[in-house]
Every structure is written in structure tokens, then in C-alpha cells.
Design a protein that fits this description.
The complex is a heterodimer of chains A (518) and B (409). Chain A is of the alpha/beta class and 518 residues long. Helices cover 25% and strands 22% of the residues of chain A. Chain A folds into two domains: 5-247 and 496-509, Glutaconate Coenzyme A-transferase (3-Layer(aba) Sandwich), CATH 3.40.1080.10; 258-492, 3-Layer(aba) Sandwich (Glutaconate Coenzyme A-transferase). By secondary structure, chain B is of the alpha/beta class. The chains are: A alpha/beta (518), B alpha/beta (409). Chain A binds chain B through residues 258-259, 261-262, 395-397, 423-426, 449-450, 485-487, 489-490, 492, and chain B through 16-17, 38-46, 70-74, 128-129, 132-133, 329-331.
Chain lengths: 518, 409
Amino acid sequence: MTVKTVINAAGRSVPLEINGQPVVPFKGVGKYKPVGRKYSPPIPTCSDYPDDGNKVVSSLKEALQKCGLCDGMTISTHHHLRDGDLVSNKVFELASQMGIKDLVWFPSASFPCNDPVIKYLDDGTINRIEGSMNGPLGRYVSEGKMRGTAVLRSHGGRVQAIQDGEVKIDIAVLAAPTADSFGNSKGTGGTSACGVLGYAKTDSMYANKVIVVTDNLIEFPCFPMEIEGNYVDYVVVVDKIGIPEKIVSGTTEITKSPDRLLIADLTTSFLEKSGILKDGVAIQAGAGGTSLAIAVFLHKILKNKGWKARFGFGGSTKYMVKMLEEGQMGYILDAQAFDLDSVASIERNANHIPYPVYNAYNYHSKGNLTSMMDIMILGATEVDLNFNGNVVTHSDGYLLHGIGGWQNCLNARNVILPIPLFRDRIPVIVDEVTTLCGPGELIDVIITERGIAINPLRQDLIDSVKGSGLPLKTIKELKEEAEKICGKPQKPYFEDDIVAAVKWIDGTVIDVVRKLKL
Amino acid sequence: MIKSVAIAGNAGPKVRSDCEITLKINSEGGIVVDLLSKVKTLYGESIVKLAEDVLVFYGIEHADVSINDSGALPFVIAARMEAAVKQLINTDLNYLPAFLPENNYSTDRDRFRFTRLYLPGNNPSLMINAGLHSADGIILDLEDSVAPEKKDEARILVRNALRQINFYGAERMVRINHGEKGLKDLHQIIPHNVHLVLVPKCENAEDIKIVEKEILDIQKVFDTKFQVFLMPIIESALGIENCFEIARSSGNIVAIAIGLEDYTADLGVQRTFEGSESLYARTRLVVAARAARIQPIDSVFSDVADMDALNKTVHTSKALGFEGMGCIHPRQIQIIRQGFAPDEAEIEKSRKIVLAFESARMEGLGVVALGSKMIDPPVVAKAQKTISLAIRMGLIPENWIDEIPHHKN
């Protein structure tokens, strides 16, 4: 089937229709502003629900049946149980047994533990995934085996798609570490604690039907609730919603790699010498080994100077918790807890605040938390000469990662990408990214072990580090250095078939991923 | 033919930036290359072409080659191919990758050797970024870090690394093997701008003379222009007894190092953190080095996780008179460098002495005084040395003396 494509504002060839629905090509950063009213779910009536507030049903199957599960529905799940999630796969196992076909799975992210859904893609239970695809799922899609076209969205973009009515969730199945029989739920407590349930909150509010699945049913009220029982249709109690040691890594550790430490060191020096690091700064650094090292180094500087970061935005880790507890950070606003220390911190520290994603960086929010942030540390699989970034495919063309909050975070004042110049011979800086996920105008600084490239659009940053002794290079110089060491790579070969669409934060199509020619 | 199938290089779940070559030479059927690689999409064609080039270079027309690649750079693939070929045929030919022009720098006798990073000679992944960590020198090690059955392939890999890896100004060193094997090592490395050769298990002047002669012979053949410095490593009781004789056995010796693992084994004692069992050997080596006007270098510190203990060891080492230490992990470099650098109090004291000396000189006085205290010439000399060290390490500006108002002309 040939689809009509156009060249979007980023110069990428994208279709006007995906999975039979019209889509808008990317128009430029901040250019697309939909009008009208947000999507709203059907109107429920409280008298249809039990007077005693007890919404517990006997099994997930019964709950799905009561929700009217049928062919073609959109099922959402969240990824707060990370690689320990036992609930998402179960939904599709049951659907398959019930002979249901052509479901759309709309997870907030998928993990290796979700690889078994390949079985349900094969047997037609699932038509497509609209969410992140890692590892084997990514390969499956890249090789053109999925029936429908995948749609990749950022965390904020997922909320935007729900609010625009671009994705209408028929049934949200929300795993909850602790819940009461009314459906009030939270991410702490029990044996499957994950900290927060921020990603699930939107789903609970906009889905047609909501099922809460818990292995820790407590007496009403479950407090403080992140998911409000008012939005919940059914509650299911199971033995286990997750495998604890895979839900949060017991501990997150800074990198031991000397090369990564060097990058972290350079990044910290850059932040210090450019004056970006200052008293009252707002910081986000992720959970990768290099980011953690940067957090530790920044902490040291803040401490030495007697400075305090106003707030940190999580994904929280024990290193951020340490900053909070030792007085170098005022608050942690947290969308997800990455390790056990962070989970514990949420429970005991009032300044460690669960902060739902749709408040933080949804395109339809009235203001954007990330644009208030001074330091944004992000990664990328590829960056090109125009500073465009790719986070979903590798240079060999395979789809291997989700977007996560990456696109949303590009709104920050200073977007810094500490990345190695090459990984096992694969250059990270390329002529043109394999898949465009973030426009170069939003990416400010690339920091590699062999030098720092500042986006020419940020003359202020270039001026701020003049004469600082930092190893400043142009991005072209960095690219040439990588190619001199690794050799110039060939390009993967693609067929015309589109296997995935990459959405920009506003819901427009910024790029597509095509089927690999094998 | 020595054997029918050759295997060279490394593969396995933890191996990165390397490859394993399995080579079988046939009498017909042409060259068939089977490539398993994580970078096949990006570099598959060039890897296969490189493998074919190496075979053609050695006149091999029929062979089965299987390459299990984990992202090896071309110079590594070439080295592994050459090593495999050399297991199957006798040849003196070397398949040399291009020598990077930026590797054509020289070194000098008096440069710092505070930190020298050891790199296992058969592990390319650790070599590629080694020069980024600002060690004074990098040591490509062919001795203890290479398994006996891997010596031949490591020699080729190290040679290619010397030609192809930019170590960004670090002094380019190789630790050769002891004895005959070491002389064989020299033939592969000397023509490729090695700055310094570490001679392990040195016990007498003769050990150095043999190595030196071999180097001179090779240099004559290749007509190389740079001087190759030597650093004997003393690792036995006999070596310690002879260390002054060793230290002045050649004008090319710039430093002498002690290896405490072997030394304590030779003595039949445990190596302790306090190091009292090796105090005599260490001080004796320092004295011998000073007497011979070369740098005394301390043994490596083997616990890469314990930075506090390393820090203490470095301070002891500096107090004993050593001027450097080997590093077995890049994380040790900064601590060792800082440990050997003059501290603030030392710099301040030296500044005052040098200033007093300069004032006396300008006023034509023969005697230098600081306050009411007379300063002897050796004290001035030591202060000048500390200041020049501080300048070279970037701790004080070169023109520090001009920044003091009354010294401005």
C-alpha cells in the first residue's frame, strides 16, 4: 500500500495518514496550536456504582468483561513497575484467551519484561503498540512484523494525545502497589512499591473504563491517593502485580567507566565555568551512570559554594535524595522513583513531592515545568551536524528505545547532552540522524570525551566559556574526529514501508521509521 | 605449515572493541569471509574488504575466514588477521596500518613521569581512549598483563596501536617481556616511535646493555631519528643490590622503577600497606636514582577501588623521594598527580626563597637571607625546582614573579 507523504518543516518525508487516521506533519517548534475543546470521557453516574464503595471484582478477566472488552479497543497500562511488571502481559493473555482481536496497546512505556506480548502481536490479539519499544519489540517492529503502525510519543506527548482525543482509551488497567476497595491508589506501601503513579493519573481521568489491579488492598481510605477512586470502575486483587527487585533497581550507581567519568567531569566543568550552575538553580539529571556522576559532582560544587538548588525534577535517585537531605536541594518534584532510596524518601520527606507528568510537560498545560529548568542533562543515540537528536533508533536502523520525557525536556533553558563520541565503533555524531526526534534548535551543548560543541544558536553560551580552557570544538570537528577513528559508516537500507511514526510533543509527525531491508 | 586452523584475538560476552579471527588456509575455493558483527550494517563491507586485503598482502588466495567482531577498529582487525596468518605461515612481512602524523612527536629526558597508565597489551578497548586521561605516559604492556599464549598477537596489536592511536601527547612507552621474548618485542615496536622502553626484572647492567644494543641495531636498520629512553624495573633482591650499577648502565636511562609484587615474593615476605618490608629497597632505589641523576619511580598500587589508601601511599612515596608511580586504572591518575604535586605550603615557602634570591641577585649580594635566616644554595635550588614544577603543573602562572608589584620592571 502506498501512502501519500509530504515533506514536513524539519525536512522529513512523513505520511498524512497513520493507521487510517489523518495526522498533521510537523510545522516547527511551537507552531502548531490546535483549537477547540479537550476530549472528555463519557459521563458516568455515581448511582451506577456500589453504595458501600466496594468495587472489588473476583478477577481481572471478570473486570475486563464488565468493561466490555471487544475487538479494536485501546488498552492503556503504565510502566511504574518498570521491568518487574506482571500486569500488562496478563491483560493480553486474557484477551487472547477470550478471542479478542486487533487491540491497540497504549503503554506509557514498555520494558524487556513485556517481550511476551510479541506472541499476542503474532496471533492478532494486538494490532499495534502506541508507546515505546525496546529490545526484541523494537526489532519486531523494525523488521515490519507488526500489523499496524507503531506510534512513538514522549511522556508529555502521550498526555497531549489523550487530551486531544487523538487516542481514546477504552480501558485503562492500572497496577497499584496499594489501593482500597473504592479504587483510591498510591505507589507506596506493600511489596511492589514503586514510589509514584504519575503516568497513570491521566489515564484514570480520561479512560472510558478504569480497572485498578493491586496486591495490597487496604481499608478505605488509601491515602495520600494519587489515583482517585472517583475515576475507578473496578478493583482487582491479585497475588502479585510485580517482581520487587525489578520494579526499582535496589540501587542506582554512578558509572565506573573512566571515559564516562571524564565526560561527567567535563560536563560539570562546563556548567560551572559557563555560570549556568548558580545558587537557586533548577536541575534535572537522569538515572544513567554518567548523569548520576554529574549529579554527584554538581552536589559537591553546590556544597563547597554554599549554594542550594531550588528544585530537582525526577526521575529521582539516591543521589538527588542526598542533595535534598543534606540541604543542597530545596525540593524534588518526582514523576518516577528509580531506586529504593527514592521510594523511601517520598514516604518520609514532605519536600519530595510526587508530581504528575501532565502538570509538568504536557503541550496543553498552561506553562511548562521544563522551561523553568536551568540544567537539563539528556542522552541520545545520535546527534547530527545540525544538533538534531535521535533517541529511538540506532545507527543500524533498528528501533530500540522509547522517547520517554526526552522531547519534553528539550524545552529547558540549557539542554546538555553528555555522550561518548562513539560507542563500540559506532559514531554518535553523524551527518544526519537516522530518525529525527528532537530539532537541533532545542539542543544546546554536546559534551564528549574528546571535546565540547556548543550550538551556534547559543552565542551567549559560547561567549560565557571563552578563555575557560575547556576543549571547545565545532560539531563538525567532533564528527570528523569520530570518523577518523571509527571509519565512515555505511547507512542502513530501508524499504518504503513505514513501521512507526514519531510524534513531536504537539502531536504532529516529526519523522517516521521505515522497515529495514534485511 | 605449522598448523591448519589459526585463532587470534578475543570474543565473548564481555569483550568489546575486539574481534576473534578463525582462519583456515585452503588450496582452492577463493577467500570466503564469514562476518558476525554488531556493527555489520555500518561497517560490514569495509571489515570484509580489510580481511581480504590482509590475506592478499600475504599472498593467500584461498581461505575460510570467520570474524566474530565486537566493534573492533580497523587497526585491531588488521592486527588479529596478521596474527592469525602468522600462526599458519612463516613470514617476516608486517601489514602496517598508516602511521598517524600526530603520533610523530618526541619526548625529553626531564619530562614528568608522575603518572604512567598501564594498558594490557592484548586489550584494545582499554587503549582507545587511554590518552584522554592526561597521564604523563601510557605503557602498552606486553609482559605480565598478557597471557603467555597471547604474546605473539599482543606484540602485533601494540605495534598497530603505536601507529594508529593518538595518545594526545602522553609519553609513548612499552613494557617488553623479560629475556629473549623481550628482544623479539623490540623488533615490532621500536620502528614506530616508542619513546621509552620499560625493561622488567632487571638484575644487572648486562640486562640493560643487551636491550640497548638490540634497540640500536633495529634503529640502524630502520634509520629512526628519535632517542629511545629506558626505564629498568627492579623486582628482585639482586636487582636492588645492583641498582646503582643498573641506573648508570646507559645514558638512555631516564628513570628506574621498583616492582614490589615480585620483590616481596623474592624476599619471601608479604607485601603490606605500610610497606616496612620494602622500605630498605625503596630508599636504596631512590638514592641510587638520585646518584645517577635519573627519576626514581614507585611501584603500582593495586587496589583500584581504594582511593584513600592510594592517596596515603602516594604521600609516603613522595616523602621517600619518588617522583612518580604507575597507574593501573585511569581513576588513579588524578590522585597520584596531585599527590606528587607541590602543596600550597611548599609553593609559598619556595616563592619566598626564590624572591629573596632574586632580590639578593639584583642587589649584587652574595648571600641570600630570608628575614634573619641565611639561605644556603641547595635550599635555593630546591625552591627553584619546586617553583618550576608548580609552573609546569599549572599551579602558578609562569609570570608569577611579575605579578608581585615590586618585582615589576
